[in-house]
Amino acid sequence: MRFKSLTLFLAIQVLSFFIWKTVSGNDVVVAEPVPAPVAVTHAASQQPAVEPVFSVRNFENDKTDLNNSQKDQIKEIFAKLPSGHSASVESVILDYDPNAYRGLGGNNMIVLRAVKIDTEELVSVLIHEIGHNVDYGFLTPKKQKTKSSFKDGGMDLYVTDQSVNFYQISWDNEKTYKKSVSNLDFVSGYAMSDPFEDFAETYTYYVLHNNDFKALTASSQDLYAKYRFMKYRVFGGVEFNTGDSKVNLNNRPWDITILGYDLNKFLS
Prior knowledge:
The chain contains 9 helices and 6 strands, in the order αβααβββαββααααα. The protein is of the alpha/beta class. The longest helix is centred in the middle third of the chain and has 20 residues, at 119-138.
């Protein structure tokens, strides 16, 4: 979940779930032409991962071993991603309140619920929140002149923002889908919440379910465009040997972060 979307979270969940359930999922609509790939060499930098500053809240001493284990796990995940992605996250807060949100991301920060969650789901949520920071920070343009049709809260987004190129695959603006899209043009129901969740869910699917994502691109030109955007503009041509390519082309999960996957395969 992106920080700037927190106050609208419940309303978005209800609305996007309703749309996901009601938009036809039987016909794949061919959307606009796929944008040409643009390689970003620094995205796949082999420099050591930049480790974030860790802190905790709602913490009790009996969780010390768990805390240390989760910190090591998080560092291992950052090490598997391009250094520019890890550099977009300056701090990670592990929250030991069992009623906290599973994850929040943005503004160079991630908050993760550290209890009542297994390792695979924690990692998946972590990667989703890293995706928000990559969207918010790593792809932020140096020059901002011409406004796009997209806003993040009350903040204007500019046409030089590479993320806008991703948003424009399926969205007219931050609230409106393109008329040509269906729910099969998104990797999940939650990705239909807004362009920012679309980005983070797509990022997570690319990292942890890459072969599955690649298989889906045959069924949707929008997903083909999103896969190529992740491959060339976000990961500099790097792909992951994750997933098994066995997917239902006519169905999408609600939430990528709760899909099963092989964590050892990702880490190997």
